Amino acid sequence: MDKLKQEKQQVKNINSNYALGFSMPEIGTFKTPKGINEKVITQISKQKNEPNWMLEKRLQAFEVFKEKPMPKWGANLSDINFDNFYYYVKPEGRPTKTWDEVPDDIKNTFDKIGIPQAEREYLAGVKSQYDSEVMYGSIKPALEKQGVLFLSFDEALKLHPDIIKQYFGTIIPATDNKFAALNTAVWSGGSFVYVPENVKVNLPLQAYFRINSSNAGQFERTLIIAEKGASVHYTEGCSAPAYSSGSLHSAVVEIIVKENAKVQYTTIQNWYKNVYNLVTKRAIAHKNATMSWVDCNLGSKITMKYPSVYLVGEHAHGEILSIAFAGKGQHQDAGGKIIHNAPNTSSLITSKSICKNGGRSSYRGLLHVAKNAKNSKSKVVCDALILDNKSQTDTYPTMDIKNNKVKIEHEATVSKVSEKQLFYLISRGLSEKEASSLIVNGFIEPIVKELPMEYAVELNRLIKLEMAGSVG
Amino acid sequence: MKLKIKNLHAEITQTGEKILNGVTLTINKGETHAFMGPNGSGKSTLANVLMGNPEYTVTNGSVILNNVEILGLTADERAKLGLFLAFQYPTEIPGVPIRSFLLKAYNAVKSTTISPKQFIKLVDEKAKLVNISDNILKRNLNEGFSGGEKKKLEIMQLAVLSPNFAILDETDSGLDVDALQNVSKAINIVQKDTGTGIILITHYQRILKYIKPDFVHVFKDGKIIKSGDYKLAQKLEQTGYANI
User: Fold this and answer.
1) B98: nearest CA partner in chain A
2) Interface predicted TM-score (ipTM)
3) Is A145 on the interface with B (CB under 8 A)?
């Protein structure tokens, strides 16, 4: 009883401002037993009626997962107990294309989050995943006619097995890291986007991920292919109920940006503050292609995520904008990687991190310029803002430059919200909270102005919520 | 309406160093009091203590603004009672646009919600007073501003917020002759329009050519050692502080 009370208090303490912390009754119709083993993996594969090659890939990946040690170089993952998660929770009902058919609990959840409204107002298509499965999806008919595919990954495997087979795990093989291996072994849900040659998708496609069941892991898999001259903006958001026991989110996102194509991938990560968010994201950019990651991490207990761009064709351009906000009990270990592997390529990494109330934010980045990548340019800017003496920020920039015909700039700043700034604003009539939140907003402003309006508004709203809880 | 300072003692919070040693003065609305004195005499400390800067701790005395004891209040509460400090070194706040900051400040001190359109009109009008261009107004708060631009922006904020009492901490330093004239003109207009009581802290007599003080106080060792009218300032110019 005491323990239950304690846990409830913990939940309260973690975040009293987390509006998305509600939960629905668990309605899973099928749930693998706790823990992971060959049997669980085979069950998942069976549930999905997959081709045999996929099961083989899963089982091979599981071997890799078992062999690889826990990464020790980043955030502290020692509390993760892999036996304690449910690796597959299938919600009741079938995936639907019309809102009316979505089961009520799920509908209510996504309603509260605002998905249908967003879909009506400014999206070209949506995919909404609830625990392990995508339960609702739609795409504007005009795009469908142009040959744009926006499918759940499971649908894609059924409808286009050859494309999936061709690309699956080619950008991020299971051997890449322990969590990529885990995802490959137990993946479920996620989305597949295919944009044909020269088709430009003007409105964003959005995926929303919701973990509802306690102790459930979510392991979605995303593959985006932009053919020559195509362009698309993909966005994702996520949240989870305020449970006392943690969840594990471990996704893999692979993106192929072909010649002259352009892809932007925007994430607003707002997991509940006990979720482990360990994600591998990587894009490969061909000749003249542009790939940009906009990665905003506000939620989760621990995030380790470093979106990467491999620039493999001449004049390819990669951009990473990273925002991290670490509050009480949070460690945001975020950043990015750019690999220049062709001449005349260019890149820009901008990272802004904020920590308060004992939170910790780390920038971890890699800039690699290969021998053949002559005349390449790169700029890395990482700024950290610390709101109080209890919080911590660190920077781990790695530069690995293999030729000297390159132009590299690197700037890093750490600033504390100064008493002088606070007093200036407060003396003009602003409360201490308003003053510090204004300073934080000003700090991230250069990134926010790069976001589409709706996301900028959402990000500002979330930061305001985080700041509202920043007493002491 | 009065600002009554009585036997005010204060020290630096961190070091305990005593700076103010018993300041007593009453300022009526509409009056201008010039504070002059050598470097390190405690003039800026007085400005910051009146506004409620936590870098200083009051050890004795009282400050009553319109019958309210303000020493226990936070700086924002003092601002809402109509107190304003134009800083000697205004701090830069990157990424915060001037207009949106000032709108928040305006609504806070006036306890109102002005329409953005009305507010833009108000700000534009006050910006003209101190000769601040639209290009500067579009920028972020003091970010990358020259010393003179910062001072002009302080006085523009004074004009927009039209407080009951304003402390101007060496507003004249860092201004060229033209800017000094503009700024002085703006201060005079604010005072005429709102009847603001002004504490004008300065090293130099030159601003007093444009803003005529009702009283001049000589400040030394953390207190007022002599008070008089405009003639006292002229005398100071000739003899220096040492002979007062």
Assistant:
1) A442
2) 0.97
3) no
User: What is the radius of gyration, based on Cα positions, of chain A?
Assistant: 22
Are B216 and B230 in contact by the 8 Å Cβ rule? The answer is yes
Q: Residues B73, B75, B81, B83: what is their CA dihedral angle, to the nearest 10 degrees?
A: 130
- Token match 């142009």: residue? A146
CATH topology (fold) of B2-243: Rossmann fold (3.40.50)
pLDDT in tens, chain A (472 residues): 465 566 556 555 555 567 777 777 776 678 899 999 999 999 999 999 999 999 999 999 999 999 999 999 999 999 999 999 999 998 877 777 877 878 787 878 877 777 777 777 777 788 888 888 887 888 888 898 999 999 999 999 999 999 999 999 999 999 999 999 999 999 999 999 999 999 999 888 988 888 888 888 999 999 999 999 999 999 988 777 776 677 899 999 999 999 999 999 999 898 888 899 999 999 999 999 999 999 999 999 999 999 999 999 999 999 999 999 999 999 999 999 999 999 999 999 999 999 999 999 999 999 999 999 999 999 999 999 999 899 999 999 999 999 999 999 999 888 888 889 999 999 999 999 899 989 999 998 888 887 777 778 888 878 877 777 643 3
Mutate to test the interface with B, among A430, A439, A464 (most CBs of B within 10 A): A430
- Contact B87/A at CB under 8 A: yes
Chain A residues in contact with B96 (beta carbon < 8 A): 438-439, 441-442, 445
A449 contact B CB<8A: no
Greatest Cα pair distance, chain B, in angstroms, is 55
- DSSP symbols for B114-176: --HHHHHHHHHHHHHHTT--HHHHTSBTTTT--HHHHHHHHHHHHHHH--SEEEEESTTTT--
Whose CA is closest to A224, among A299, A172, A300? Answer: A172
Q: Where are the domains of chain A?
A: 18-305
Q: Choose the closest CB to B101 out of A418, A438, A445.
A: A438
Q: Which two tokens stand for residue A137?
A: 């999806």
Q: Tell me whether residues B93 and A420 touch, CB distance under 8 A.
A: no
The helices-and-strands tally (H runs, E runs) of chain A is: 12, 24
